[in-house]
Amino acid sequence: MDRFLRISIASLLFLVFAGTIVSYAQEVKNKTYTKKEIEKMSKERAIIKTSFGEIKLKFFPEVAPNHVNNFIELAQKGFYNGTTFHRVIPGFVIQGGDPNTKSADKTKHGTGGPGYTVKAEFNDKPHKRGILSMARSQQPDSAGSQFFICVADAPFLNNQYTVFGEVESGIEVADKIVSQKRDDMDNPIDRVEMTVSIVEGK
């Protein structure tokens, strides 16, 4: 991928996130976690089930504990169940986690969240293929529930979005999802719904 295309894609992602995620004055979650709490989160895994198969995720609570805890808590509440991957960009990312995608009204897809935000935890983990990171608006502390999985290396996103995990198995499922036919907003023509569960890892 040449430099111009990399810059164009980076700009596109920023505009996509900044232009769709609605960020009002909301509570910003930011807690200090104990070593024991971080160790517990590091042992947990998320299973994203789709019609194309399962994606298993592991977490990086040592660098982004608030984002990891937020994702785990939302998943345990069933928040993500019935939502879709509403943005798929070949050679780049698949994005999901918006509660508005439970509705068939695609005009609101990409604008929703949990009603609060999480303080940014930018870190040195690189945005490479398989990385799990959080979508946000222009405001760094605006991440809520929407996340994306990189299907290719995207170093131009480093230190601008919070990396909080990566695909442990099932990256081929993400490849299938990103290849689906999509509309002008990169939303798949056919819904790609998910359910997300948390399990204890090895």
Structure description:
- The chain is of the alpha+beta class and 202 residues long.
- The chain has one domain (3-200): Cyclophilin-like (Cyclophilin, Beta Barrel).
- The protein contains 4 helices and 10 strands.
- The strands form 2 sheets. The protein has an 8-stranded antiparallel beta sheet. It has a two-stranded parallel ribbon with strand order 1-6.
- A hairpin with a 3-residue loop joins β4 and β5.
- The longest helix is centred in the first third of the chain and has 18 residues, at 3-20.
- The relative contact order is 0.24.
Short note summarizing the structure:
With 202 residues, the protein is of the alpha+beta class. The protein has four helices and ten strands.
**CATH-defined fold name:** Cyclophilin
- Termini separation comes to 37 Å
Q: Please count the helical segments.
A: 4
Binned strand content: 15-25%
Main sheet strand line-up: 4-5-8-7-9-3-2-10
Q: How many domains is the backbone divided into?
A: 1
Principal-axes geometry comes out as globular
Percent of residues in helices comes to 10-25%
- Main beta sheet strand tally, sense and closure: 8 strands, antiparallel
Could you give me the name of the CATH homologous superfamily?
A: Cyclophilin-like
Under the CATH scheme, which architecture would be assigned?
Beta Barrel
Mean pLDDT, nearest integer? 91
* CATH secondary-structure class: Mainly Beta
Instruction: Give the radius of gyration.
Output: 15 Å
Low-confidence stretches: 3-7
* Structural class assignment: alpha+beta
Number of strand elements: 10
Give, in order, the helices and strands. HEHEEHEEEEEEHE
